[in-house]
């Protein structure tokens, strides 16, 4: 589904008609992390199979502010910037394509590039770090005894999965951590979940409650109404607005 903002985007409005159609077409061929194979001949065959004279390289350059073009081991790839700010995926499949190595539109050919396996290992290390710091925040927030409430494989895997999903949205490690911490903070602020309920039960388990699913964690981050009045960062407000828009569209589709 094309986000309504596409039609009013001033930058996109300056593109040629072919560039706009090309950009829309790329969303159809991108995977759940917004990546796709970007060899010009392949993209032409996929998006413009009946156009003989179109210059794909020119069109690729025209939309380069919205698409990150990069090369890994002599293979060409593309990544739609801010993909998951506009695309809601309930159960994303991890990409089989290597991620971009930096935020430039192209990678100089003279650079020594790591292979795909090295890139994936580096990415996983990021999620491990986020999971570990999130668990430490949870232990501190809820005054858990770390010797008794241990960082088990189940808890580690759950936190890594949520970190992976949120990182696709933020594209930033520190922002991902902030969202994970906010989920914990918002649960702590809920008197109902802290035991003020008819059952007198606390709903604060890190796996079964706070980070049990992507949808639940996002609700906890963006929909909870905590009692504290900390001003959220502007980037977090932007994500909250995108989340609300996706939720409204999803509700409309289901009605």
Q: Can you walk through the features of this model?
A:
53% of the residues lie in helices and 6% in strands. The protein has two domains: 5-86, Orthogonal Bundle (Arc Repressor Mutant, subunit A); 116-254, no CATH class. A three-stranded antiparallel sheet has the order 1-3-2, with helices on one face. A hairpin with a 2-residue loop joins β2 (67-72) and β3. α7 (116-141) packs parallel to α9 and α9 crosses α11 (214-222). It starts with a helix and ends with a helix. It is elongated and about 70 Å long. The chain is mainly α and 255 residues long. It is built from twelve helices and three strands; from the N terminus they run αααβααββααααααα.
Indicate the structural class: mainly alpha
Can you give the mean pLDDT? 82
Which strands sit side by side, in order, in the main sheet? 1-3-2
Order of helices and strands: HHHEHHEEHHHHHHH
Measured as a percent range, the helix fraction is 40-55%
Report the principal-axis shape.
Answer: elongated
Main β-sheet: number of strands, strand sense, barrel status?
A: 3 strands, antiparallel
Helix segment count? Answer: 12
Return residue spans where pLDDT drops below 50 for at least 5 consecutive residues.
103-121
- The first-to-last residue Cα distance is 17 Å
Strand content: 5-15%
Radius of gyration: 21 Å
Q: What does the oligomeric state look like here?
A: single chain
Q: Give the count of structural domains.
A: 2
Give a count of the beta strands, DSSP E runs of length 2 or more: 3
């Amino acid at each position: 589904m094309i986000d309504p903002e596409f039609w009013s985007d001033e930058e996109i409005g300056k593109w040629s008609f072919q560039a706009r159609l090309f950009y829309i077409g790329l969303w159809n061929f991108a995977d759940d992390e917004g990546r796709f194979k970007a060899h010009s001949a392949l993209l032409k065959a996929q998006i413009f199979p009946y156009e003989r004279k179109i210059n794909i390289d020119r069109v690729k350059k025209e939309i380069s502010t919205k698409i990150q073009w990069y090369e890994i081991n002599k293979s060409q790839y593309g990544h739609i910037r801010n993909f998951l700010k506009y695309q809601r995926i309930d159960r994303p499949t991890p990409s089989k394509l290597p991620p971009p190595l930096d935020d430039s539109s192209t990678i100089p050919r003279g650079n020594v590039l790591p292979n795909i396996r090295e890139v994936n290992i580096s990415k996983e290390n990021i999620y491990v770090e986020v999971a570990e710091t999130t668990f430490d925040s949870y232990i501190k927030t809820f005054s858990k005894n770390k010797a008794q409430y241990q960082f088990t494989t189940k808890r580690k895997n759950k936190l890594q999965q949520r970190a992976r999903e949120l990182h696709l949205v933020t594209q930033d490690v520190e922002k991902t951590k902030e969202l994970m911490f906010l989920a914990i903070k918002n649960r702590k602020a809920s008197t109902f979940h802290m035991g003020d309920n008819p059952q007198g039960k606390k709903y604060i388990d890190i796996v079964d409650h706070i980070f049990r699913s992507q949808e639940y964690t996002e609700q906890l981050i963006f929909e909870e109404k905590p009692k504290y009045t900390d001003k959220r960062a502007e980037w977090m407000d932007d994500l909250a607005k995108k989340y609300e828009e996706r939720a409204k569209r999803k509700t409309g589709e289901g009605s």
